[in-house]
Design brief:
7 strands; 212 residues; 4-stranded antiparallel beta sheet; 2 domains; alpha+beta
Protein backbone atom coordinates (compact mmCIF):
# COMPACT_ATOMS: atom_id res chain seq x y z
CA UNK A 1 0.00 0.00 0.00
CA UNK A 2 1.37 3.43 -0.96
CA UNK A 3 1.54 5.76 2.01
CA UNK A 4 0.27 9.30 1.61
CA UNK A 5 1.55 12.59 3.01
CA UNK A 6 0.34 15.55 5.08
CA UNK A 7 1.68 19.09 4.81
CA UNK A 8 1.60 22.29 6.85
CA UNK A 9 3.22 25.67 6.33
CA UNK A 10 4.75 25.84 9.82
CA UNK A 11 4.38 24.31 13.27
CA UNK A 12 1.34 26.48 14.08
CA UNK A 13 -0.49 25.94 10.80
CA UNK A 14 -3.32 23.47 10.17
CA UNK A 15 -2.24 20.30 8.39
CA UNK A 16 -3.57 19.52 4.92
CA UNK A 17 -3.84 16.15 3.22
CA UNK A 18 -3.51 13.33 2.66
CA UNK A 19 -1.71 13.77 -0.69
CA UNK A 20 -0.01 11.27 -2.96
CA UNK A 21 3.78 11.50 -3.20
CA UNK A 22 3.51 12.55 -6.85
CA UNK A 23 1.29 15.47 -5.84
CA UNK A 24 3.89 16.75 -3.35
CA UNK A 25 6.68 16.36 -5.92
CA UNK A 26 4.82 18.25 -8.61
CA UNK A 27 3.76 21.01 -6.19
CA UNK A 28 7.40 21.60 -5.20
CA UNK A 29 8.50 21.64 -8.84
CA UNK A 30 5.81 24.14 -9.80
CA UNK A 31 6.59 26.38 -6.79
CA UNK A 32 3.28 25.86 -5.00
CA UNK A 33 5.15 24.26 -2.09
CA UNK A 34 8.46 25.44 -0.66
CA UNK A 35 11.23 23.02 0.24
CA UNK A 36 10.94 24.40 3.77
CA UNK A 37 7.31 23.25 4.07
CA UNK A 38 6.73 20.70 6.82
CA UNK A 39 5.59 17.22 5.79
CA UNK A 40 4.98 13.82 7.34
CA UNK A 41 3.93 10.42 6.06
CA UNK A 42 0.60 9.11 7.34
CA UNK A 43 2.45 6.44 9.35
CA UNK A 44 4.64 9.06 11.07
CA UNK A 45 4.01 11.49 13.91
CA UNK A 46 7.06 13.75 13.54
CA UNK A 47 7.21 16.61 11.06
CA UNK A 48 10.25 17.62 9.02
CA UNK A 49 10.87 19.87 6.04
CA UNK A 50 10.49 18.59 2.50
CA UNK A 51 14.20 19.03 1.78
CA UNK A 52 15.11 16.68 4.64
CA UNK A 53 13.01 13.77 3.36
CA UNK A 54 14.91 11.35 1.08
CA UNK A 55 11.82 11.02 -1.12
CA UNK A 56 11.91 14.74 -2.02
CA UNK A 57 15.53 15.74 -1.36
CA UNK A 58 16.42 16.22 -5.02
CA UNK A 59 13.14 17.86 -6.00
CA UNK A 60 13.20 21.56 -6.82
CA UNK A 61 16.98 22.07 -6.60
CA UNK A 62 17.33 23.00 -10.25
CA UNK A 63 14.68 25.72 -10.01
CA UNK A 64 12.28 25.82 -12.93
CA UNK A 65 11.11 22.89 -14.97
CA UNK A 66 11.95 22.81 -18.67
CA UNK A 67 9.21 23.03 -21.29
CA UNK A 68 9.64 19.33 -22.11
CA UNK A 69 9.31 18.40 -18.43
CA UNK A 70 6.10 20.43 -18.17
CA UNK A 71 4.67 18.64 -21.21
CA UNK A 72 5.67 15.22 -19.92
CA UNK A 73 4.28 15.89 -16.45
CA UNK A 74 1.15 17.81 -17.46
CA UNK A 75 -1.19 14.94 -16.60
CA UNK A 76 0.25 14.72 -13.08
CA UNK A 77 0.88 18.36 -12.17
CA UNK A 78 -1.24 19.44 -9.24
CA UNK A 79 -1.75 22.81 -7.62
CA UNK A 80 -1.54 21.96 -3.93
CA UNK A 81 -3.71 24.93 -3.00
CA UNK A 82 -6.50 23.79 -5.29
CA UNK A 83 -5.99 20.27 -3.96
CA UNK A 84 -6.94 21.39 -0.44
CA UNK A 85 -10.51 20.26 -1.13
CA UNK A 86 -9.22 16.68 -1.30
CA UNK A 87 -8.02 16.73 2.28
CA UNK A 88 -10.46 14.22 3.73
CA UNK A 89 -11.85 10.87 2.59
CA UNK A 90 -15.65 10.74 2.65
CA UNK A 91 -17.26 9.04 5.62
CA UNK A 92 -19.05 5.74 5.14
CA UNK A 93 -22.32 7.33 6.27
CA UNK A 94 -22.11 10.13 3.69
CA UNK A 95 -21.30 7.65 0.93
CA UNK A 96 -24.24 5.44 1.90
CA UNK A 97 -26.59 8.45 1.95
CA UNK A 98 -25.38 9.57 -1.49
CA UNK A 99 -25.80 6.05 -2.83
CA UNK A 100 -29.38 5.96 -1.49
CA UNK A 101 -30.24 9.07 -3.51
CA UNK A 102 -28.56 7.63 -6.61
CA UNK A 103 -30.53 4.40 -6.19
CA UNK A 104 -33.77 6.39 -5.95
CA UNK A 105 -32.94 8.36 -9.11
CA UNK A 106 -31.91 5.26 -11.07
CA UNK A 107 -34.94 3.18 -10.06
CA UNK A 108 -37.45 6.00 -10.58
CA UNK A 109 -38.03 5.53 -14.32
CA UNK A 110 -38.42 1.73 -14.33
CA UNK A 111 -40.87 1.99 -11.41
CA UNK A 112 -42.84 4.81 -13.04
CA UNK A 113 -43.13 2.81 -16.25
CA UNK A 114 -44.89 0.04 -14.30
CA UNK A 115 -47.14 2.43 -12.37
CA UNK A 116 -48.16 4.74 -15.22
CA UNK A 117 -48.74 2.27 -18.06
CA UNK A 118 -51.19 -0.57 -18.46
CA UNK A 119 -49.80 -4.03 -19.27
CA UNK A 120 -48.93 -4.22 -22.95
CA UNK A 121 -46.38 -3.13 -25.53
CA UNK A 122 -46.17 0.47 -24.30
CA UNK A 123 -45.33 -0.63 -20.76
CA UNK A 124 -42.68 -3.04 -22.09
CA UNK A 125 -41.15 -0.27 -24.18
CA UNK A 126 -41.19 2.17 -21.26
CA UNK A 127 -39.61 -0.45 -19.00
CA UNK A 128 -36.90 -1.12 -21.60
CA UNK A 129 -36.10 2.59 -21.92
CA UNK A 130 -36.18 3.06 -18.15
CA UNK A 131 -33.93 0.04 -17.67
CA UNK A 132 -31.45 1.41 -20.19
CA UNK A 133 -31.35 4.78 -18.43
CA UNK A 134 -30.93 2.93 -15.11
CA UNK A 135 -27.81 1.15 -16.38
CA UNK A 136 -26.36 4.25 -18.06
CA UNK A 137 -26.88 6.37 -14.96
CA UNK A 138 -25.04 3.96 -12.69
CA UNK A 139 -22.16 3.56 -15.13
CA UNK A 140 -21.62 7.19 -16.12
CA UNK A 141 -23.00 9.35 -13.27
CA UNK A 142 -19.64 9.74 -11.47
CA UNK A 143 -18.10 11.09 -14.69
CA UNK A 144 -20.05 14.35 -14.34
CA UNK A 145 -17.08 16.22 -12.84
CA UNK A 146 -16.67 13.38 -10.35
CA UNK A 147 -20.15 13.79 -8.88
CA UNK A 148 -23.33 11.79 -9.31
CA UNK A 149 -26.50 13.54 -8.12
CA UNK A 150 -26.24 11.90 -4.72
CA UNK A 151 -22.61 12.93 -4.30
CA UNK A 152 -23.44 16.47 -5.37
CA UNK A 153 -26.08 16.72 -2.64
CA UNK A 154 -23.66 15.58 0.07
CA UNK A 155 -20.62 17.52 -1.27
CA UNK A 156 -18.68 14.40 -2.23
CA UNK A 157 -16.59 13.76 -5.32
CA UNK A 158 -14.68 10.91 -6.93
CA UNK A 159 -11.04 11.72 -7.70
CA UNK A 160 -8.01 9.94 -9.11
CA UNK A 161 -6.03 8.62 -6.13
CA UNK A 162 -2.71 9.52 -7.78
CA UNK A 163 -3.33 13.02 -9.14
CA UNK A 164 -6.45 14.30 -7.37
CA UNK A 165 -8.14 15.02 -10.68
CA UNK A 166 -11.92 14.61 -10.84
CA UNK A 167 -13.22 11.27 -12.12
CA UNK A 168 -13.95 11.08 -15.85
CA UNK A 169 -16.45 8.89 -17.70
CA UNK A 170 -13.92 6.12 -18.30
CA UNK A 171 -13.06 5.86 -14.62
CA UNK A 172 -16.75 6.10 -13.75
CA UNK A 173 -17.58 3.07 -15.89
CA UNK A 174 -14.62 1.11 -14.53
CA UNK A 175 -15.39 1.80 -10.86
CA UNK A 176 -19.11 1.10 -11.23
CA UNK A 177 -18.93 -2.13 -13.23
CA UNK A 178 -18.07 -3.93 -10.00
CA UNK A 179 -21.45 -2.99 -8.53
CA UNK A 180 -22.86 -6.11 -10.16
CA UNK A 181 -20.96 -8.02 -7.46
CA UNK A 182 -23.29 -6.54 -4.84
CA UNK A 183 -22.06 -6.89 -1.27
CA UNK A 184 -18.71 -8.25 -2.47
CA UNK A 185 -18.05 -4.83 -3.97
CA UNK A 186 -19.39 -2.65 -1.16
CA UNK A 187 -17.95 -4.59 1.80
CA UNK A 188 -14.48 -3.24 0.97
CA UNK A 189 -15.63 0.20 2.15
CA UNK A 190 -15.31 -1.02 5.74
CA UNK A 191 -11.53 -1.33 5.32
CA UNK A 192 -9.04 1.27 6.53
CA UNK A 193 -9.06 3.20 3.24
CA UNK A 194 -12.87 3.28 2.97
CA UNK A 195 -12.80 2.32 -0.72
CA UNK A 196 -15.11 0.01 -2.65
CA UNK A 197 -13.63 -2.72 -4.80
CA UNK A 198 -14.53 -0.48 -7.74
CA UNK A 199 -12.37 2.31 -6.30
CA UNK A 200 -9.42 -0.04 -5.99
CA UNK A 201 -9.84 -1.27 -9.57
CA UNK A 202 -10.23 2.26 -11.01
CA UNK A 203 -7.64 3.79 -8.62
CA UNK A 204 -10.12 6.36 -7.32
CA UNK A 205 -11.10 7.83 -3.95
CA UNK A 206 -14.32 9.44 -2.75
CA UNK A 207 -13.54 12.64 -0.89
CA UNK A 208 -15.45 15.30 1.03
CA UNK A 209 -15.31 18.71 -0.61
CA UNK A 210 -14.55 21.70 1.59
CA UNK A 211 -17.34 24.22 1.84
CA UNK A 212 -16.12 27.57 0.47
Amino acid sequence: MTLRWYTRRDENATEKGPFEETAITEAVKSGNLKRSTLVRREDETNWSTIEHHPEFRAVGRSGRETASERTEKSDYRLDIRAHAEYARDASRGARLAARTIDNFVAFALPILSVVLFEPGDIRHLAMAIGGGIFVLYFLFADGLNGQSLGKRVFLLAVVDERTGRRCGFGESVLRNLTRCLGVLDFVWIFGVQRRRLGDIVAKTRVITLSQR
